[in-house]
Hints:
The protein has helices at residues 3-10, 18-24, 47-63, 83-93, 120-132, 143-155, 174-182, 231-241, 257-267, 303-309, 313-324, 328-334, 359-371, 375-389, 391-399, 401-408, 427-431, 436-441, 454-468, 474-487, 494-499, 508-520, 528-535, 537-546, and strands at residues 34-37, 66-69, 101-103, 106-108, 136-139, 188-191, 200-205, 209-214, 221-223, 246-250, 273-277, 280-283, 290-292, 355-356. With 547 residues, the protein is mainly alpha-helical. Strand 3 and strand 4 form a beta hairpin. The protein is elongated and about 110 Å long. The chain starts with a helix and ends with a helix. The model has no long low-confidence stretch (mean pLDDT 89). It binds one RNA strand of 77 nucleotides through helix 6, strand 8, strand 13, helix 12 and strand 14.
Amino acid sequence: MTNKNLADLILPNITKTIDDLRREYPKREVEGEVTRVAPSPTGYFHIGGMYQTLIDNMIARNSNGVFYVRIEDTDSKRKVDDAVELIYDTLKNYDLMPNEYQEKDRIVGNYGPYVQSERKEIYQVFIKYLIEIGRAYPCFCSKDKLDEVRERQERYKQRTGYYGPYSTCRKLSIDEAYERVKNGENYIIRFKSKGNFDEKFRFDDLVKGRLLLPENDEDFVIMKADGLPTYHFAHLVDDYLMGTTIVVRGEEWISSLPKHVELFNTFGFDLPKYIHTPNIMKKDEETGKLRKISKRKDPEASMSYYKEHGYPTLAVIESLMTIINTNYEQWHTNNPEKSYLDFVYDPKKMSASGGLYDLDKLINISKTVISKMTKEELCEKAYDWACSYNEDLKELIDRDRDYFMNIINIERCQKKPRKDIAKYEDIVDNIWFMYDDLYESRDKDFDWQVINDKEEIKNILDTYMDKYFNIDDKDSWFNGVRDLTNELGYCANMKEYKEDPSKYKGSVADISTVLRVGLTSKSMSPDLYEIMRLLGKDRILKRYKNI
RNA sequence: GGCCAGUUGGUGAAGUGGCUUAACACACUGCCCUUUCACGGCAGCAUUCGCGGAUUCGAAUUCCGCACUGGUCACCA
Length: 547
């Protein structure tokens, strides 16, 4: 009995060789880097995935290379329906569609299939070869037995794992292994390691720099009972065949790097370059400590969070850019008119430690992004969002699109536009008082600030309506306010007022506040004159009289 | 517990032996501008770079030890 016999027994249908596959997937002829993002279809798009996608995309674009998506669905237990759709929807939404991918039955690119479950035979060609040369073997150990061994290792403070003296099935003779497979015993395939844990090797990571890691000596699983490969093996086969030159993945993979290195070396394949990205951290509300952002505890870990709340995609991208490359913000302020697409990513400018994802920062960036949009652009985006997430806003825009645009346009067309909207979700709360029906139905807490006396408020509003009402143009309107201020014994000039406040009942600021609160019920609003102009005389008078 | 990595203000961070009295941005506070709020402008916010020791004329930067934080140790990726 030979290894060849064993390989044929385990994988009888595999007739292709690695050379055949090499001919089917020839070496790429691209000048730039080949990157990939490899999500698992678990029905969840993690912010860390978006972060990596951005990096992959930039590297490929900057170098004139290729960026592709590979769906890693070798874990049938975790697979979720429509998850692949969610991945591509998110990528499209952020305008990050790759050069090569596979969506439904459509394959774009020559290195597919880009879904791992459809590549089973390809992996098995490599696995069969390994069995033939005696570098892989079937393992019949049960889960229970493995657990027992691990417990014993822990008890005796040994390293856990299937290595050295613990790799029992490795010692089985070919004849015995052959018989047991033939008899229908359950098994998986393990890699036969030749490494020595006490020997270290150097490894250069593009972000982490030089690492010193122990060689792998574990006979880890490469093919599961369902015939699909484990991540480690799929990584080898796919990234070799698909010609990946830079692998971008989370730093949790560093500890399995020795396995990958041994695998690549065994086949004599060149190792890709690696970027191990730091984890995205968050401050825990309860303990006050930093921790990895969590799928279960933190809604903002999911990309759906940003969509639901109506953050512009550009704002999310830019906030991620600030933690991807520490010099991004500087670059952005120096090149305000350029798109983030023009930025050249540099792995050396990436922090090696975990970066904190700060929602406050996102809000600030988002306000700036929205303030730079034209009214048409904002209206369109807000409307798209409202169609799925906010009936009220959709209704307001449907009712009168121009009126809506006029409202959001207040203090927009100036060198430093107003920044009061961070997300589409905020819009209704910002403008409801511009609509009579909402103004009638909402609970209003008139926030009068300085002048609180009912009689005085009535006096101010009455005098204003009688004598000084004028919204023809901004100057005459303001002059009216000034005259009103003087007549009632307040100071119309802020400088004079500040020199000696005791000489006056108050200032033009106080009068303006009364006019603003009387009209909007809020002490904070965009430019008062613009609001008045949009509302028109009748509606203003009606509201003032009702107070 | 073994192995690997990280540790600079409230936060993201710049920093690779003297240009650092530690940049810049967010947050916060104050002032100014402004008819109010916001926007904007200015200023304040780490006497100090996790702790201890060593090297050096000189250390956030180099070396050693310790502490803490994170990652990993699956037929999950």
